[in-house]
């Protein structure tokens, strides 16, 4: 093997060109198809590009033509397995073979073995990430064996005294802790004795699948961190936080895409980030861990299926929809994010996302054709300013809506509320 790097000076090649090629033992006639320094097409073939297998490894040399294609396309497996073959766990190497067999390959490209190794490292990294510092009111996972564990479910029973609560309904849906004082409003950092979601006390605690939604620049991440900090969102301390934007930031090729085409970089990385999101969601559900899925819920049809799978697996499904009525504020937030992360969005994208994001949530809040709900709890959050004196405000909570039926959902005017109308309960 002879490194092309050694020839970079003589042939004026980029110093980053580090792939190796084999020289034949017999003389070879250079033709358009086997010339020593071929056209870029040789380097853009999905079968030729070898993905880095670890996060610490640099990506291969990518031409401008490569950087106009998505990473999921660049590193697709050349075997072209059928959908039936891809649905078999044994066809996927690595620790998450079963989860990979459950992915939607009508949408995703099956990655090459090298790319799967890199993705497996990303999945392991996200699963191991701790959020205890961000979540002041998170409680220990009930999967750990304890004397009070429910042997039939592997989940811990709370078995806590509810006598200190003001009424039985106050604690009926607590997944975290019982109020410590007879007056549930005594502690401002403990907003209610049961500000979580789970089955009734005395039974096994259910994990929560919490979905965020909102337009670009609505401030979903800020609201999540604020609510985890002040206790308005309480989960088990080993919950998995799945953010497609952060997943794309872990891809080794991202700096090259941002440098080459900053306007389209997010789009070209999105397909692989979506695969990682779906893979992490499946693994977290297999492990019965609470999960936060940070996104837009823009594809309501697909998320109906995801939410149904969570409910069938014993989860409670919550949605926190964040909106901002001032597009200038959303634009300034997006610009601050661009400076920090390199991700660019246009004013038109912000405008469209602001108008479309509430439509999906309103659709998902309604029961299905068989009368079953997709969502157990829905909260709408007004985050229209960045002033410290005006923090995010919950303007609607389905637990306080008499029209919201348990197990059935309700007809919530999400679009009207997000665009300016006050909710009427």
In short:
By secondary structure, the protein is an alpha/beta fold. The protein is 31% helix and 8% strand. Among the domains are: 1-38, no CATH class; 168-239 and 289-418, Rossmann fold, CATH 3.40.50.
CATH topology of one domain: Rossmann fold
Count of helical stretches: 13
The secondary-structure class comes to alpha/beta
Helix content, binned percent:
25-40%
The CATH first-level class of one domain comes to Alpha Beta
**Lateral strand order in the biggest sheet:** 4-5-3-6-7-8
User: How many strand units?
Assistant: 8
Shape: globular
Strand percent estimate: 5-15%
- The end-to-end distance, rounded to whole angstroms, is 73 Å
Low-confidence stretches: 1-47, 144-204
Q: How can the largest sheet be summarized?
A: 6 strands, mixed
Level-2 CATH architecture of one domain: 3-Layer(aba) Sandwich
Mean pLDDT: 75
InterPro entries: P-loop_NTPase, Zeta_toxin_domain
GO molecular function: ATP binding; kinase activity
Protein name: Zeta toxin family protein
Keywords: ATP-binding, Nucleotide-binding
Notes on the protein architecture:
- Residues 203-365 form the Zeta toxin domain.
- One of its GO terms (molecular function) is ATP binding.
- This is Zeta toxin family protein.
- The chain is 31% helix and 8% strand.
- The protein is globular and about 60 Å long.
- The protein starts with a strand and ends in a 7-residue tail after the last helix.
- Among the domains are: 1-38, no CATH class; 168-239 and 289-418, Rossmann fold.
- It has 425 residues and is α/β, with parallel strands linked by helices.
